[in-house]
Specification:
The chain is α/β, with parallel strands linked by helices. The chain is 27% helix and 19% strand. The protein has one domain: 3-Layer(aba) Sandwich (Rossmann fold), CATH 3.40.50.150.
Length: 234
């Protein structure tokens, strides 16, 4: 049984995306960060423990262990069928399930060997050449979202905004793995309709709270021109 909460132009659904997606209309953009299926590497650690890694492991183990398995190819096909364009974070974990595309993004987290944070690939369905997005990220770099770090693998709001701005004319964004609602917050900032699905009650409640707060604050952030150093796709 799913629960739906509507907050302004955002619709949040508490449920399993495999059951909810077939009931939804097609959206302009799928923008999501699925679980990578690396539960044991997170919960027991991979390599020497640093203060940062310990903090990350504790944050993950304190909540529901949602990263036990990654989505199957059938779920990727379902997600893609409910969207016109797609951007998938952490796509280096799903290369065997994604279609051929030249529009990949390399997220350079600017650790330069001094950070435990790994760089990341994003898949896009856009017919453009591969680009680079450079932004510092990680608990050890002091980089947090402006309203806090609520999820172990929470993406920066600015990254989500940047992704949305890559696709001309986007009016609706779908995130089947909404987590703590960062994609929804980015949509509020940009004045775009959002539909998010989250299975874990803890993160669903956090997403509702964060998006409610963003809606109450109004559109504080107008879309900014994409800077060349951030690797604009268009």
């Amino acid at each position: 049984m799913s629960e739906t909460v509507v907050i302004g132009d955002a619709t949040l659904i508490h449920g399993d995306c495999r059951e909810v997606l077939p009931l939804l209309p097609k959206h302009d953009l799928l923008l999501t960060d699925p679980p990578y299926g690396i539960d044991k590497k997170i919960s027991v650690g991979g390599g020497p423990h640093t203060k940062t890694k310990t903090k990350f492991h504790n944050l993950y183990k304190a909540g529901p262990r949602w990263d036990i398995e990654r989505p199957g190819k059938d779920l990727f096909e379902l997600m893609f069928s409910t969207s016109r364009h797609q951007i998938v974070c952490g796509a280096n974990y799903f290369c065997d399930m994604l279609p051929v595309s030249r529009g990949w993004v390399f997220w350079d987290k600017m650790g330069a060997g001094m950070s435990s944070v790994n760089d990341e690939l994003l898949f896009t369905s856009l017919d453009v050449s591969m680009k680079v997005f450079r932004r510092c990220h990680g608990l050890d770099k002091g980089f947090l979202n402006k309203d806090g770090q609520w999820h172990p693998t929470q993406k920066p709001t600015e990254l989500m905004k940047w992704c949305i701005l890559q696709v001309p004319g986007v009016q609706s964004v779908l995130d089947p793995f909404a987590g703590s609602g960062t994609t929804g917050v980015a949509c509020v900032h940009l004045g775009v309709n959002f539909t998010g699905i989250e299975r874990e009650r803890k993160y669903f409640d956090i997403a509702c709270e964060r998006i409610s707060r963003a809606q109450a604050q109004g559109r504080m952030f107008e879309p900014e021109p994409i800077k060349a150093e951030q690797g604009a796709l268009l």
